[in-house]
Write a structure and sequence with these properties.
The complex is a heterodimer of chains A (371) and B (1087).
Chain A: E1 8-13, E2 18-25, E3 30-38, H1 44-48, E4 56-60, E5 64-65, E6 84-86, E7 89-90, H2 103-109, E8 113-116, H3 120-130, E9 133-138, H4 142-151, H5 161-164, E10 170-172, E11 177-183, H6 188-195, E12 198-204, H7 209-214, E13 219-222, H8 233-240, E14 248-251, H9 253-261, E15 266-282, E16 288-299, E17 310-317, E18 323-329, E19 333-336, H10 351-370
Parallel strand pairs in A: 3-4, 4-6, 5-7, 6-8, 11-12, 11-13, 13-14, 14-19
Antiparallel strand pairs in A: 1-2, 1-9, 2-8, 3-9, 10-12, 15-16, 15-17, 17-18, 18-19
Chain B: E1 9-13, H1 25-39, E2 43-47, E3 63-65, H2 71-81, E4 85-87, H3 92-104, E5 115-116, H4 121-128, H5 130-139, E6 147-150, H6 153-163, E7 167-171, E8 181-183, H7 186-199, E9 205-209, E10 215-223, E11 229-237, E12 250-252, H8 259-276, E13 281-289, E14 296-302, H9 307-316, H10 320-328, E15 355-361, E16 382-388, H11 391-401, H12 412-417, H13 423-431, H14 437-446, H15 451-458, H16 462-479, H17 488-496, H18 501-508, H19 512-522, E17 527-530, E18 544-548, E19 562-566, H20 577-592, E20 596-601, E21 616-619, H21 624-634, E22 638-640, H22 646-651, H23 665-672, H24 674-684, E23 691-694, H25 697-707, E24 711-715, E25 725-727, H26 730-743, H27 745-748, E26 758-762, E27 768-776, E28 782-790, E29 803-805, H28 812-828, E30 833-842, E31 845-852, H29 859-866, H30 870-878, H31 883-889, E32 900-906, E33 927-933, H32 936-946, E34 956-960, H33 966-978, E35 982-986, H34 987-995, E36 1002-1004, H35 1015-1020, E37 1024-1029, H36 1037-1049, E38 1053-1055, H37 1058-1073, H38 1081-1084
Parallel strand pairs in B: 1-2, 1-4, 2-3, 4-5, 18-21, 19-20, 19-22, 20-21, 34-35, 34-37, 35-36, 37-38
Antiparallel strand pairs in B: 6-9, 7-8, 7-9, 10-11, 10-13, 11-12, 12-15, 13-14, 15-16, 17-18, 23-26, 24-25, 24-26, 27-28, 27-30, 28-29, 29-32, 30-31, 32-33
Chain lengths: 371, 1087
């Protein structure tokens, strides 16, 4: 490693903390966003291409990133929506039979900058204590970076869904069941799983309930996505019109929106859940699932009591008691905060897709019986 | 599901002596289990024959049986204790095998007998029986290598007709892969298959499609009663398939699998543990991955905690054995808090934010004749683990943790030693897995050979090769600079690549201290990070640290009185678990006395590196720089250097003299410095064998001319009789000196100098060797902990010799002289703490051989034999307490008498059939066992049984004795005859016996010289089931050597000294009258 190739840079947080590093990926003088961390040991490509990270700078706590390169199959979306990556050690050479290019090349190609050489553990400890915090990195002076960080709005009160949703409807899969998926930033792996259940029509986030129901779907899927659910009142209103009308399954932001649709409130977590190792208990079966997580907001189960619908918490995070799933009883609607589709992460919760299929089938056979 | 109340007592089976493939990791797991189960309120009964373990301390169980680990003995323990349950999954393969034998006899695991907890018999059989396991894996849709099982050679041939060559052959029910091998040709196949059939206790081998060269992985899985499963750690082997995982360099977590591939492997591991049916606890599942296609196959599964789970526990901070013990008594993972965060449950998967590297340590230099080539059978005797933020940092730390004369992966000494090798020669070397392969790889990359070409030769993944190449580039950068050129940024970068100060100093050609000073001036200081199971996602309390070179240091200040304890590093022959025992005891004693204890060690197998053992744990190499950095960070009151063997002792002179606890560095030197030592003995008028010190061959010749042959030659500052030899003539002397000064492995570690001369003494033939362990306090009071008489005569290394407390043949007054000498030497050396003195008694003359003012290998044995916690007492004494004060405190009671304890060494020869198992002055044993009973013969029998060499009660004994030993042979033969054994002997021995009225059933040629079967044939076919063969001096070893090798290959007990044969005969006589009985240590220790 000849010293000449290194472009020095710094990461500065809104609180003034400075981290020295080296700039990698696309050549931007500054990249700013809300700094979050992810503790997954593998799956960096899936994380970087996950639209839910829109507006954020992702810190990888595992020091070696890029070891196995990137490949077209592991992308979670058509591009990248995060604002930058913060790394301890970016692989100079990758090694895996599936690899098509190196991570550094991939970052450059997608116009995404990164900073390497960072004491990511110090950064993570700081984020753990202070919560997600805006930051900026690049080749600008520390004071310029600091002011960029301070100007960064973060993700509270920002509608990021509109920046990642599809503008045009499209279809995946070709099975018998008809599923509508509302795209708030949907991941490819989710589409892959839904596609194995039936024909999935992916619609823009702002599609109205009437338009959706007009398609007479067997089920409606509410996707994951970035940002603050509090900013998505109109979407929640549309969803509320479908509760009890059609089976619905939500993941992550989709879960928060289902909660909102039935009147529950959402809260911001101090530093969110970002990783692939969180224990979640399914309260109906008592089984523990190791889950993939990526969220800063959550549904508040204390708000379930006074609701018009019979809403119950079905899954709980054993680390901190955060609500990980809910069911609207009698309305064939359920949702989870974690990511059963994995991508990246463990597959323990994959059964939830079958549960969705079963709900759709029960309804259609009931419908057929009624007819 | 909470704690089970339907059981109240649990028998834990330990793993017995340290052998290759089964080391301290099972003391670590067993100790955790004992602790946890007692905390949970169960009565814990423990069976383990290894006295050097922490778990066999009487404080760790309610009933501790230091008894041989055979199913019969364990059955009598069960009979006596009537436990409700047996936990067999924490004592390695030994415990599993015994549990299965007990189950097959319906003594456990069936109604009306103790329940098997952890894993039941069916699960054990499914995992352990190769074919059953394979069928089970195929049944659940997992891919496995194509294979077949054979019980005979003809079955074996049928299998390869089907799957072709190359194949790998593994015997069933074998730990550490003994008897396993790869065959590429029909000839190799013939050889390896027959060996494998012989090694398997059930004559069964698995023959498999060879997947040598594939990537190898391991996952550590845990499961609870509610079927919750988690993966604790993934491990990737740097060495591809073909090298036993215990002999592979491994890293955690896995580095080169995409998440898709990793999750596929995770799913497979979970299905595997569920199908095999391990109900609760930890298992290890091994996989191979074809790097070209990603095809994953399951290799094997261990339905128990293992060496890998110890590594995974240390690598992640998740204590697998502790959790396994809790799960075994009914808890579920979510009911147990994560030990480190306290706030989150154990039902999660640890994530780490650093890289862990493990490198094994081998002992080929002690086993002449062994090939030194690694394969599917484990051969390493220890390992070092290191933690760094990156692989480059981590691997360099691991290399220097090994203490084999390398300061890092790229070091100038190694480079110059490889200078003569051409690139082609190095590429050839790389293709063969050996302990030095990584060094060869680095040298090739440093010379600019393309990584692809290196990969072609060694099959190590290109990602690892690129990482090593980065180190080579950093080396080149440093080599082109002077110290003045290195600014903060470049120093920091070098440190972040894991370069030690000494490594940098050598590269740029300055003294180590100059680099240290420059580094301090530039403000480049180590930071200590925490191992917390969660990559900093949650706050952690546990002060388990490693050094790295980052922005932030996490070590919390403390104003308590702090003591640093330096551990003993990787296990090696001569320095193993005994020293870990002492360090752990020091920590316990000091914690109890109100000190904050800080442990420094890099051996992942040990109890000392359990973060629970001390108040703080630094998982760090034991080098000067690393230790000084910790001292700087912690500012301790004292540093304990004398309990961890040679490793910390070597550091004594390199740290501030005021910090050394107990005996001063100067006194330590006085004992090592031959001149000072001679003067001391002379002043005390204690006889010494005549001798002197030599640096050159000329010196050595002169000494030999003065004292006469035979002489004992030994280097200074080594443990375990490293390179020690008995020399009978000038030619041999010349060879020995050449080896010591450069050519041999010891030469690589520094050669000879005025500071490290070779010691040459007249060898005292047929002397009785005696060891004494004592403690002296600062007032001058001396406590003699134990006087041990060796069974084998002087000339056999004390570590390889059986010994007894109390002495059995020495007159009482001679023992008293020994005690007086010991006390006087301790006084003269101004010892504050432990001292071990070795004597040789010839007739009634007591010669002193050497004194070591430090903990000896026998400290735990003496403690178990006498009930005096020597290491704890010594530690308190080192910190200034007097023996009188400790007596007052009730901490020190007089030794308990009334029984005999025998320590026997356990030797690794069955893994090295090409090595002569005759004992000599160089230590080769890997572990030890203890037999304790009312008389010597019974205790000795137990010790032999525990060491795996059962004394025969029927059948045929073969005697082949050298002339000196023939008289004693008469007695041996008579005793054996009286026990109804038949005797075979060589012509000479038979003739001698006949002269004194002892007839022999068969006279045998040793090797094929005459017609008819030879001793080797009868050993091979099982006719002979005990061998007494004493070698003849320096020559004439060859015939006997073949017999001894045959015995070790066919697992026939073999003693190589007449003293041991006499002891065996006495043992047989005493045990014939009354069968073996068991008794707890607590009962023996009752006052």
């Amino acid at each position: 490693m000849s010293a000449g190739h290194i472009i020095e840079g710094a990461l500065v947080l809104a609180d003034g903390s400075v981290f020295e590093g080296e700039l990698v990926g696309a050549d931007h003088p500054v990249s700013s966003g809300e700094v979050v961390f992810n503790t997954a040991l593998s799956g960096y490509q899936e994380i970087i291409t996950d639209p839910s990270y829109a507006g954020q700078l992702i810190t990888f706590t595992y020091p070696h990133i890029g070891n196995y390169g990137v490949n077209v199959d592991d992308a979670e979306s058509r591009g990248v929506f995060c604002r930058g990556v913060i790394i301890r050690e970016l692989a100079r050479r990758h090694s895996n039979y599936r690899a098509e290019q190196g991570l550094n090349e991939f970052l450059s190609m997608h116009g995404l900058a990164g900073i390497a050489g960072i004491d990511t553990r110090r950064l993570t400890r700081l984020l753990r204590e202070q919560g997600a915090i805006p930051g900026a990195f690049g080749s600008l002076s520390e004071s310029e970076l600091h002011s960029h960080a301070q100007q960064e709005p973060g993700t509270d009160g920002v509608d990021l869904v509109s920046t990642v949703t599809t503008s045009e409807p499209y279809t995946v899969g070709n099975g018998e069941r008809r599923i509508v998926a509302l795209d708030f930033g949907i991941k490819s792996t989710i589409l892959h799983h839904l596609g194995s259940l039936g024909t999935v029509e992916v619609l823009p986030a702002t599609t109205s309930a009437a338009e959706i129901l007009a398609r007479q779907p067997d089920g409606v899927f509410l996707s994951n996505g970035p940002g603050d659910p509090a900013m998505l009142d109109s979407i929640a209103r549309e969803i509320s019109q479908m509760v009890g009308v059609v089976p619905m399954f939500g993941i992550c932001l989709g879960h928060q929106l289902l909660g909102k649709a039935v009147g529950a409130t959402t809260i911001k977590l101090p530093f969110g859940h970002h990783g692939g190792n969180h224990p979640v208990k399914d309260l109906t079966t008592e089984r523990i699932e190791i889950t993939s997580q990526n969220h800063n907001f959550a549904v508040d189960p204390d708000s379930f009591d006074e609701l018009e619908h019979d809403v119950v918490m079905t899954h709980i995070n054993l680390n901190d008691g955060v609500c990980q799933g809910l069911e609207v009883r009698g309305a064939q609607c359920f949702s989870v905060q974690h990511h059963p589709e994995a991508g990246p992460g463990p597959h323990d919760s994959i059964y939830l897709f079958d549960r969705f299929a079963a709900l759709m089938d029960a309804r259609s056979s009931a419908g057929k019986a009624a007819r | 599901m909470p704690r089970r109340d339907d059981i109240s007592s649990i028998l834990i089976i330990g793993s017995g002596p340290i052998v290759i493939g089964q080391a301290c990791e099972f003391d670590y797991s067993g100790t955790q289990a004992c602790r946890v189960l007692r905390e949970e309120g169960y009565r814990v009964i423990l069976a383990n024959s290894n006295p050097a373990t922490i778990m066999t301390d009487p404080d760790f169980a309610d009933a501790t049986y230091i008894e041989p680990l055979t199913w019969e003995v364990v059955a009598s323990i069960i009979e006596r204790e009537q436990p409700d349950a047996v936990l067999p999954t924490l004592g390695g393969q030994t415990a599993l095998n015994i549990a299965m034998e007990l189950f097959e006899r319906s003594l456990i695991g069936v109604p009306g007998t103790p329940e098997m907890i952890g894993a039941n018999a069916e699960a054990i059989a499914t995992a352990e029986d190769r074919q059953q396991f394979k069928d089970a894996m195929i049944e659940i849709g997992l891919d496995v290598p194509r294979s077949g099982v054979a019980h005979t050679m003809s079955e074996a041939t049928a299998v390869i007709d089907d799957i072709g060559l190359p194949v790998i052959i593994r015997p069933a029910y074998i730990l550490g892969g003994r008897g396993t091998g790869i065959a590429s040709t029909p000839e190799e196949f013939e050889q390896v298959a027959s060996k494998g059939l012989a090694a398997s206790p059930i004559s069964e081998i698995l023959i498999e499609e060879s997947i040598a060269g594939w990537k190898e992985y391991e996952l550590e899985v845990m499961r609870d009663r509610s079927d919750n499963c988690v993966i604790i750690c993934s491990i990737e082997n740097v060495d591809p398939m073909g090298v036993h995982t215990g002999d592979s360099i491994t890293v955690a977590p896995q580095q080169t699998l995409t998440d898709i591939e990793y999750q596929e492997m995770r799913d497979a591991a979970l299905r595997c543990i569920r199908r095999v049916g391990v109900e609760t606890g930890g298992s290890n599942v091994q996989f191979a991955v074809d790097p070209a296609t990603g095809r994953q196959v399951v290799i094997e599964m261990n339905p128990r905690v293992s060496r890998s789970s110890a590594l995974a526990s240390k690598a992640t901070g998740f204590p697998i054995a502790k959790m396994a013990a809790r799960l075994a008594v009914g808890y579920t993972l979510d009911e147990i808090p994560n030990d480190i965060t306290k706030a989150t449950p154990a039902s999660f998967e640890p994530v780490i934010d650093y890289v862990v590297t493990k490198i094994p340590r081998w002992a080929f230099e002690k086993l002449p004749g062994s090939s030194g080539v690694l394969g599917t059978q484990m051969q390493s005797v220890g390992e070092a683990m290191s933690i760094g933020r990156t692989f480059t940092e981590s691997v360099q730390k691991a290399v220097r943790s090994l203490e084999q004369g390398r300061d890092g992966l790229i070091d100038t000494r190694t480079m110059s030693s490889l200078a003569e090798h051409s690139v082609e020669a190095l590429l050839e070397l790389c293709a063969i897995p050996t302990p030095d392969r990584l060094v060869h790889v680095a040298e090739l990359l440093r010379r600019g050979v393309a990584p692809e070409r290196v990969h072609e030769a060694c099959r190590i993944d290109l990602w690892f090769l690129d990482q090593i190449m980065m180190l080579c580039e950093e080396y080149a950068y440093l080599a082109s600079r002077t110290l003045e050129d290195l600014d903060r940024r470049s120093l920091r970068r070098a440190k972040r690549f894991g370069f030690s100060d000494r490594q940098i100093a050598d590269i740029i050609g300055v003294e180590e201290d100059a680099v240290r000073v420059a580094r301090h001036e530039a403000g480049v200081l180590p930071t200590y990070k925490t191992v917390d199971t969660c990559a900093a996602e949650f706050a952690a309390d546990t002060p388990y640290h490693y050094s790295t070179w980052e922005d932030e240091d996490e070590v919390r200040d403390s104003d308590r009185r702090k003591v640093v304890i330096l551990g003993s590093g990787p296990n090696r022959i001569g320095q193993g678990i005994e020293f870990d025992y002492c360090c752990v005891h020091a920590s316990f004693a000091l914690r109890d006395a109100g000190f904050e204890t800080i442990m420094v060690n890099c051996n992942p197998e040990t109890v000392s590196t359990d973060y629970d053992t001390s108040d703080r744990l630094y998982f760090e190499p034991l080098t000067r720089e690393d230790v000084l950095n910790i001292i700087d960070a912690e500012r301790p009151e004292k540093v304990i250097v004398s309990l961890g063997g040679q490793t910390p002792l070597k550091l004594a002179g390199q740290i501030d003299a005021a910090l050394v606890a107990g005996t001063s560095a100067a006194s330590i030197d006085a004992a090592e410095d031959r001149e000072l030592w001679n003067r001391l003995c002379h002043e005390l008028q204690i006889p010494q064998p005549p001798g002197g010190t030599a640096v050159t061959l000329e010196d050595a010749r002169n000494i030999c001319d003065d004292v006469g042959f035979p002489v004992l030659v030994r280097p200074s500052y080594v443990l375990g009789g490293r390179a020690m030899q008995i020399i009978h003539d000038h030619d041999h002397l010349e060879r020995a000196m050449a080896e010591l000064s450069g050519a041999g492995s010891l030469g690589k570690e520094g050669g000879l100098s005025a500071e490290r001369p070779v010691l040459i003494d007249r060898f005292l033939a047929s002397a009785v060797e005696v060891d004494a362990d004592a403690i002296r306090d600062h007032t001058g009071e001396v406590l003699i902990g134990g006087v041990m008489e060796h069974v084998e005569e002087a000339g056999v290394h004390s570590g390889d010799s059986a010994c007894a407390i109390p002495p059995q043949t020495l007159p009482e007054w001679v023992v008293e002289v020994i005690r007086a000498y010991t006390a006087a030497i301790a006084e003269r050396l101004d010892v504050r703490g432990l001292i071990n003195v070795q004597f040789a008694v010839v007739g009634t003359t007591v010669y002193v051989i050497e004194a070591n003012p430090r903990a000896s290998r026998t400290v735990p044995f003496v403690a178990k034999a006498t009930g005096v916690p020597l290491a704890k007492v010594a530690t308190r004494v080192m910190m200034g307490a007097t023996l009188a004060e400790l007596r007052e405190e009730g901490f020190l009671d007089p030794p308990i008498e009334g029984h005999v304890a025998v320590k026997e060494a356990v030797l690794p020869f069955n893994r090295f059939p090409e090595v002569d198992p005759a004992l000599g002055p160089e230590m080769r044993s890997t572990g030890e066992v203890m037999g304790i009973d009312v008389g010597f013969g019974r205790a000795f029998s137990k010790a032999e049984l525990a060491a795996g060499s059962e004394l025969p009660t029927s059948g045929m004994v073969f005697l082949s004795l050298n002339d000196t030993d023939k008289p004693a042979g008469i007695v041996v033969a008579r005793r054996l005859r009286e026990r109804g054994l038949s005797i075979a002997a060589t012509e000479g021995t038979a003739a001698h016996l006949a002269r004194f009225g002892v007839s022999v059933d068969r006279v045998l040629g040793k090797v094929a010289k005459q017609d008819g079967p030879t001793a080797v044939d009868l050993i091979a076919d099982g006719t002979i089931n005990f061998v007494v063969n004493t070698p003849r001096g320096s020559s004439g070893r060859s015939d006997g050597e073949q017999i001894r090798k045959a015995a070790s290959l066919h697992r026939v007990s073999c003693v190589t000294t007449v003293a041991a044969a006499l002891a065996a005969a006495q043992g047989l006589a005493e045990t014939a009258s009354e069968p073996l009985t068991v008794r707890t240590l607590q009962e023996y220790h009752q006052r």
